[in-house]
């Protein structure tokens, strides 16, 4: 009987962090071409397709992109949960392949987020003056809250409840920047210190400029197929050991607890599915829209108790050579954040598990964790990956 264990066999990145020569669909296309070349598969072998883009979500986004890319699929998924969509996609692809709904799935993402700032400000994801705020968000909009303000409130509450400090949050930015120094493509590579983070401009108290992610262009693609098909392909396959997702709210006013996220639900579920514990994780690729995002995810995954994230990260274990290397490509804080970063977490985890990460390689990496965040820490997805077929 054919082995239908789902494995990742191809990954690809489009050009980043600045790519004015590409628009959003072209990022999807370039990433797909590179993932196909990496996998050794032909495009006509793809029979499942999933996508999310960097512009305004639309009901036909997945179908339109499938047409643009020339994908003749029999299974399609356009789930849109923001930055965690790709971890949700992974969960869905595992189920679809396991049930025989498709055999080989392509996931793509593309965004001209940075370059678009100079093209069409006020459209495609930027709400300009006079534009209507739709849905429940209209009840928050009159109070002037902005995206970073949502995360600032989370950070303020964590500090008030647990004594977390700005110095401890800054350690996360420093750890990620040290990894970015090893990535020649990273948006920001100059060394920084905790004092540099604290001395950077305050954006939304208590978050400083260097607590916030970069703004870039970029795109990515991931190909998932069966272990049976992977036997004939060039790379060590990467098994999807566990994948789970959960939601607590969408708008920040509905967040039940400002110090906890839905990772507290989906994280343990993904670990249990994989048959591992946090002690087995060799590297973490965590959504770092802001430093506080990482801190809350670490606690909710169970790497430390709730409220102990500050002292946990202050030990330096997230830095290169530490016990739990974080975002080894330089993360969203320093390398690449085109608006939705979840696919880059998966791609970097695959590079680490293939032992193909160059100077940033985590020695003996066998198990990696990717956790995506969508909305305002709203829809969270956790994926545990392992080297080889498990």
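-> sequence recovered:
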């Amino acid at each position: 009987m054919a082995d239908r264990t789902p494995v990742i066999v191809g990954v690809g990145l489009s050009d980043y962090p600045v790519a004015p020569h590409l628009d959003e669909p072209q990022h999807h296309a370039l990433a797909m071409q590179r993932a196909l070349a990496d996998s050794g598969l032909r495009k006509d072998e793809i029979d499942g397709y999933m996508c999310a883009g960097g512009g305004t979500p639309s009901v036909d986004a997945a179908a339109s992109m499938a047409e643009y890319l020339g994908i003749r699929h029999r299974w399609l998924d356009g789930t849109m949960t923001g930055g965690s969509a790709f971890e949700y996609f992974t969960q869905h692809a595992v189920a679809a392949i396991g049930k025989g709904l498709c055999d080989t799935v392509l996931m793509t993402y593309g965004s001209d987020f940075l370059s678009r700032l100079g093209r069409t400000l006020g459209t495609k994801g930027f709400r300009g003056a006079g534009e209507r705020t739709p849905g429940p968000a209209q009840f928050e909009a009159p109070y002037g809250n902005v995206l970073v303000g949502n995360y600032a409130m989370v950070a303020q509450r964590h500090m008030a409840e647990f004594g977390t400090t700005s110095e401890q949050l800054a350690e996360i930015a420093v750890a990620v920047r040290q990894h970015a120094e090893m990535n020649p493509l990273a948006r920001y590579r100059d060394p920084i210190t905790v004092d540099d983070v604290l001395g950077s401009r305050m954006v939304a108290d208590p978050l400083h400029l260097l607590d916030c992610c970069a703004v870039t262009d970029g795109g990515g693609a991931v190909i998932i197929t069966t272990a049976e098909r992977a036997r004939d392909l060039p790379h060590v396959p990467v098994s999807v050991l566990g994948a789970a997702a959960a939601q607590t709210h969408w708008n920040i006013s509905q967040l039940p607890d400002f110090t906890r996220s839905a990772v507290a639900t989906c994280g343990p579920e993904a670990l249990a599915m994989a048959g591992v514990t946090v002690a087995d994780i060799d590297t973490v690729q965590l959504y770092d829209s802001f430093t506080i995002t990482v801190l809350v995810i670490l606690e909710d995954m169970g790497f430390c108790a709730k409220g102990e994230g500050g002292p946990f990260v202050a030990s330096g274990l997230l830095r290169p050579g530490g016990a739990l290397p974080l975002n080894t490509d330089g993360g969203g804080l320093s390398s690449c954040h085109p608006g939705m970063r979840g696919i880059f977490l998966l791609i970097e985890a695959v590079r680490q598990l293939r032992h193909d990460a160059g100077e940033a390689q985590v020695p003996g990496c066998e198990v990696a964790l990717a956790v995506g965040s969508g909305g305002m820490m709203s829809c969270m997805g956790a994926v545990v990956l392992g080297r080889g077929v498990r």
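The radius of gyration is 20 Å.
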